[in-house]
Amino acid sequence: MRPASPTPVLPLLRTPPALRALGLASLAILAPLSTAAQETSRIARVTVYPGSATVERVAKVAAGARSLTLGCLPASLDAQSLQISADPAVRVGEFNVLTEDRDVVSACASPLDGRIRELEDQIAGVKAEASALQLVDGYLRSVARATPGDDAPQARPASPTPAQITATAEVLRKSGQDAFTRTHQLQRKQEALELALKPLVAERDRVASQRARVVSVTIHLATEREAELRLSYQVRGPGWQPSYRATLDATQATVLLERQALVAQNSGEDWSGVQLTLSTGQPGHATQGPLPRPWWLNVAPPPQGAGTQAAAMAMAPAPAPAMAPLSRSRHTAEEAMPTFDVSTLDKGFASEFAVPQRITVPSSGQRVTLALGSHRAPATLITRTAPAMEEAAYLVAHIAPPPGVWPAGTAGLYRDGAFVGNGRIDFGAPSAGAPAGSTSLSFGRDERVTVRAEPAQDLTGSAGFTGSRTERKTRRTYSVENRHATAITLQVLHAAPVSRHEKIEVESRYQPHPADLAWNRSPGTVAWQQPVAAGATAQFSAEHTIRHPKDIELLERQ
Questions:
Q1: What is the pTM of this model?
Q2: Per-residue pLDDT of the chain (558 residues; tens, 9 = 90+)
Q3: What are the residue boundaries of the structural domains of the chain, listed by start?
Q4: Taking CA 111 as the corner, what is the angle to CA 37 and CA 367, rounded to the nearest 5 degrees?
Q5: Does residue 471 contact residue 547 with C-beta atoms inside 8 Å?
Q6: Residue 7 main-chain phi, psi, to 5 deg
């Protein structure tokens, strides 16, 4: 009798046809659910403000429709901001707003739920295949341990020939090797799937509280033919922040300003392929500023005794309970949301930036960076130093406002292609030492300028005919050497004493005479500014004499 061939072991390594049929049937069952969950409207346009956004949805209205329900809207929707518009063929009536738990609305599944279920199904399939391979491994081991003596005497087969033993052993070896290799591959695949599943589950759990409730809007209408209906509403939380990249070309004395915007939102609905507009307006803030209160004067009543005061207090009516401001709860809610501090230049009207391409911003708080164009601006370069504070010089560029609107924001600073640090661009606020309407950017230390501050010389003595006054003289000397191959514009800052009392006299002498005795509109901040040729050294000195009566204690702050 010929021995049983081991080849029937090999089909066990493949997916059984019954399981394949079951998988196809499962997909057929899930397909209609996925189609039914699709929304009947889409987000067409979003206008983002600091801390809020206006979302515009577009829905198709069938001919003869009498109502339309837009569901799965975010719970952060402001019902008072709802606006409905439609084509002339649609007459819009009243509308209702309903807020309910997301769990009871099967069509409002989380955008992450589908991907999570897909990964969980893949992990389950990997585990099932691994379990099947364990059965294959057990079967191969039982075949390898089987001997002719294990069978009953009446069913004992003839002894296998050496060639049959060799063939059986080779099939067992190859089948076992394939099973172990596939088991290792499945283990690696399961680890990769679980690694991809973990952040999705964490993100779903993080936003679960925000998306625990959803809003549906039911609109009653009458339409003669198929048309479009537009629904716009405001949501709290989204925002944008301007950001810049400033690159200084020292040889050309120009600064390349690249304008960017960081957009983020966690409203509970993804913005996929929408027309995005960024606005500096703040629709959630007060529409009117505080008004002045009356300023009245009256004669104070005569003082009363303790008993009279107690009686008056007892007769006085109890004060009414203070009502919390209406804006307090809203302010508290806004504190837990991302804040985006955006300043506007015109102060009176909002400035808008329309992004030409369609943008996708997920509802996960992830920041999306948008490029809003660039501008190359001429710059005035100066080398600034404050020797008494630090024996170092820094390269500073003054830039005039470029055409258009440039809201205030942080800027990454680059000098000749190398990153030097971060700064801030704000053309609407005064900048230190910059001309009116310009901004000042510091591009790091100038290593080719050597600064030296000599030790301060202090002399204190008596003055006056009777020696009743104290006189103190202080002298500071600075030297700055230009090691560049070209001339530079040097600015040296020095702090001079300023008297705030009529009994304290201050007399100052400078060499050379400063260009400004109140630099940056700060009395006592002295600024020398002059060109320094290549390889030249400039000297600066300041001598201050302070006189005051000996009987007063001098209060000094530096």
A1: 0.60
A2: 444 444 333 333 333 443 333 333 333 333 333 333 334 789 999 999 888 899 999 999 988 889 899 988 888 888 889 999 988 888 898 899 998 887 777 777 666 777 888 888 888 988 888 888 888 778 777 777 765 544 545 555 567 777 777 877 777 778 778 888 888 888 888 889 888 888 888 777 765 655 578 888 999 989 888 999 999 999 988 889 888 999 999 889 999 999 888 899 888 788 989 999 888 777 766 667 677 777 777 776 777 654 545 444 443 444 433 333 333 333 333 334 333 333 333 434 567 888 888 889 988 778 888 887 788 999 999 999 999 999 999 999 999 888 877 788 889 999 988 999 999 888 877 777 777 778 899 999 999 999 999 998 988 877 765 667 888 899 999 999 999 999 999 999 999 999 988 888 999 999 999 999 999 888 889 999 999 999 999 999 999 999 888 888 888 876
A3: 52-110+211-236, 112-206, 239-280+340-447, 450-549
A4: 145
A5: yes
A6: -60, -25
Contacts of 275 (CB under 8 A, 6+ apart): 44, 45, 46, 354, 355, 358, 359
Residue 51's φ and ψ, nearest 5 degrees, are 95, 0
Structural class in CATH, domain 112-206:
mainly alpha
Tally of CB atoms within 10 A around 311: 12
Residues across the chain = 558
CA gap 4, 203 in Å, rounded: 56
Answer whether 255's CB lies under 8 Å from 425's CB.
Answer: no
Structure tokens at 475: 């002298």
The rounded distance, in Å, linking the Cα atoms of 51 and 100 is: 25
